[in-house]
Amino acid sequence: MLQGLLENFINGDMRAAGRLISLVENGDPRAWHIMQFISQYTGNAYIMGITGPPGAGKSTTVDKLISIFRKHHNTVGVVCVDPTSPFTGGAFLGDRIRMQRVTGDENVFIRSLANRGALGGLAPKAKEVVQILDAFGMEVIIVETVGAGQVEADIINLSDTTIVVTVPGLGDQIQALKAGILEIADLLVVNKADREGASDTVRDLNTMLDWMPPEKWRPKVLSTVATRNQGIGKVYEAIQEHKNHLLQTGKWGVLRRKRIESHCFTIMENVLREHVDKKVKEVAELKELLEQAREGKLDPYSSADNILKILFSQLENKWALSPVSRAMSGLPISPADNSFFRG
User: Fold this and answer.
1) Handedness of CA 39, 42, 43, 45 (dihedral sign)
2) DSSP state for residue 111 in the 8-state scheme
3) Which residues pair with 223 in a beta bridge?
4) Are 191 and 226 a contacting pair, CB within 8 Å?
5) Which residues are bridge partners to 8 per DSSP?
6) pTM (2 d.p.)
7) How far is CA 22 from CA 81, 88, 112, 156, 325, in A?
8) In terms of CATH, what superfamily is 43-249?
9) Residue 343 has pLDDT above 50, yes or no
10) Phi and psi dihedrals of 299, rounded to 5?
11) Which residues contact 209 (CB under 8 A, 6 or more apart)?
């Protein structure tokens, strides 16, 4: 069944892509095998991150950018990270009520993900979903963060170009510095520029950029009124300029290598964290060591050290059969391999 789903995915079946995303997002036991298969087809898409405070107009900006990319005949994947619904546990807003004009375009794939309480503005499986869209052949992938109040910094670990959308009247220069927009932005967009104070915001941002250490790339500060499609063309041009900068300087490859390395560490950390958590709850000896720490009979460092010694001695005997070792060796993973982590 899964093999057929993967074959349909490779053949361009959008429903298969949606199904794979659902399996991965919901933590299906086959997700590891899915992502191992998917990874061989990734590395071709250009990834953009759109972040900024709530109400800044991120979704409208994304909507207008989709239209421009489509006019240039690019296929576009969009990942919208929304707050988690308290009733369903899924995305609170969802893709059904946003970007309605492009939902019938077979060359545009839009998916909403619930952030599920994750900090940093991204959903827990956002990286995997981006990889699936990349493997599916989306040439441009736009990731819109949830907008939790301040600018979310996790997006820089996922995107080639990070765009920060802000609006006039959000506070003084110090507040902007606190939000960290100058550190993460490759492009700054002052949306709703028809409001009073827009020119002051643009001026203040440019002044703060003057204080930053000189870099080969200085973020551009652009004004837009996204609802009227004003200034979006300039944003598209700035995106292309930054992309060319990355290609010409070789930074695009550097970014991607760092991203792969970071993702490898994240995978290992998640697997080991789940394994440790499960074993500590199940094994009496490990539970006792943890209880000694709780009661103050053993300091936390000694407790953790003893727990790890026991766990790693067990791992040494079983590691060859673990999905981690198979993944690192490029070997296929069978459902039986996951039993080590389940049991």
Assistant:
1) negative
2) E
3) 190
4) yes
5) none
6) 0.81
7) 14, 14, 11, 24, 26
8) P-loop containing nucleotide triphosphate hydrolases (3.40.50.300)
9) no
10) -70, 155
11) 182, 218, 219, 221
